[in-house]
Amino acid sequence: MKRLITLSILSWPLLCAQAQDATKVIRESAPLSAADSTGKIWTRGATLNLNITQVSLTNWVAGGNNSLGGIVLFNGFANRHKGKHVWDNSIILAFGGQLQSPQGYALTDDVAAIVKTDDRIELNSKWGRELKKPWFLSFLGQFKTQFTEGFDATGNRISNLFAPAYLILAPGFDYRPSENFSVFISPAAMKLTLVNDKRLFSGLADDARVFGVKNGSTTEVELGGYLRAQYTKELSKNFTFLTRGDLYSNYLRNPQNIDVSWETLWTLKVNSWFAASLNTLLLYDHDIDVPKLKDETIGGVTTKVSTSGPGAQFKQTLGIGLSFKL
Questions:
Q1: Residue 221's pLDDT band (boundaries 50, 70, 90)?
Q2: Are 70 and 55 in contact (CB under 8 A)?
Q3: Which of 63-72, 84-93, 236-245, 262-271 has the lowest mean pLDDT?
Q4: CA angle (51, 319, 56) in 5-degree steps
Q5: Higher pLDDT, 188 or 10
Q6: What is the number of domains present in the chain?
Q7: For residue 130, is it within any domain?
Q8: φ and ψ at 131, to 5 degrees?
Q9: What's the pLDDT at 109?
Q10: What is the mean pLDDT of residues 55-78?
């Protein structure tokens, strides 16, 4: 895990260097956004993606399940730029599921099971005032949660709406050499974690924590250092790349445990309504336990035993389907 965190931290200078090489020709008088050249104060946009998968099996001797699944993803933004003031806002909504049933049964039968494959609500807002190009004095706000409850492999509830929910409020400095690249740095960021579903604490010890929130409470307040970087690139006319990442260290409890969030998105537009996308998300939070297997020797026999503890989480989503620009 230390190697993973070290690799994530070391990757930022490399990313910065690549972005600076791509934008080194920017002049002091170059515009920061389309608002300067078009006269528009606000720049708005949104995309809606719908990906559907379906598998039907009949007398398939290799085994398997009939399934019908899909993911709906909405990305929207509204940015304001006037004079030395910049205000960026974005919203990400995603929800996906898969309906499964044994082959030979209809998907509507009672034996069918619904499995959640994606669930995300994220709101971002960042205001900045230019100090001296490319530096801005900024304030960032971020909110994350999910739509519905989540369950583990045994059917136990492990998450829900506002359980957890994360709120980050951070003053700091924003480095914006171009519209494609920015790095926000805050030496004193407040992070609030909310777990409002008491059922998640059922059966746990008095000093146990769920998503960092101690048993008997619903919130956990942290103060720490925060870094957020984002880079976008139009690789060709219909092919775009985006990567963004967050690092957070809690000064008040175990500051050596750095929370990591790193996301990439590759999008290929075939035409105005059809697209393919590849999305990856890497997460590490020392306060989140993930299922693990460990070796345990009993009577000279070594077996795998289920346990849980801090660990890296990784999600990869490949989608091909309808895409609409709103």
A1: very high
A2: no
A3: 63-72
A4: 65
A5: 188
A6: 1
A7: yes
A8: -95, -65
A9: 59
A10: 89
pLDDT of 14 = 42
Q: Which token pair is 262?
A: 């790193």
- If 0-12 CB within 10 Å is exposed, 13-18 middle and 19+ buried, where does residue 310 land? middle
Q: What are the backbone angles phi and psi of residue 34, rounded to the nearest 5°? A: -60, -20
Confidence band, pLDDT 50/70/90 cuts, at residue 108 = low
User: pLDDT value at position 39?
Assistant: 66
User: Which 8-state DSSP code applies to residue 200?
Assistant: G
Find the angle CA(229)-CA(192)-CA(149) to the nearest 5 degrees. 95
89 in any annotated domain: yes
Beta bridge partners of 269: 275
What's residue 198's pLDDT? 93
Residue 8: φ, ψ to 5°: -65, -45
Contact criterion met (CB below 8 Å) for 214 and 222: no
Query: Residues 264, 280: contact at Cβ < 8 Å?
Result: yes
Rounded to whole angstroms, how far apart are CA atoms 71 and 10? 33
SS3 140: strand
Q: Which residues lie below 8 Å from residue 291, measured CB to CB, with a gap of 6+? A: 152, 153, 306, 307, 308
113, part of any domain: no
Residue 278: inside a domain: yes
Tell me, what amino acid is at 90? S
Closest CA to 226 of 205, 246, 206, 209: 246
Domain that holds residue 259: 2-21+43-57+65-106+125-138+170-192+224-325
Following CA atoms 281, 284, 287, 292 in sequence, which dihedral angle do they give, to the nearest 10 degrees?
90
Tell me which residue of 187, 184, 46 sits closest to 128, measured CA to CA: 184
Are 45 and 197 in contact by the 8 Å Cβ rule? The answer is no
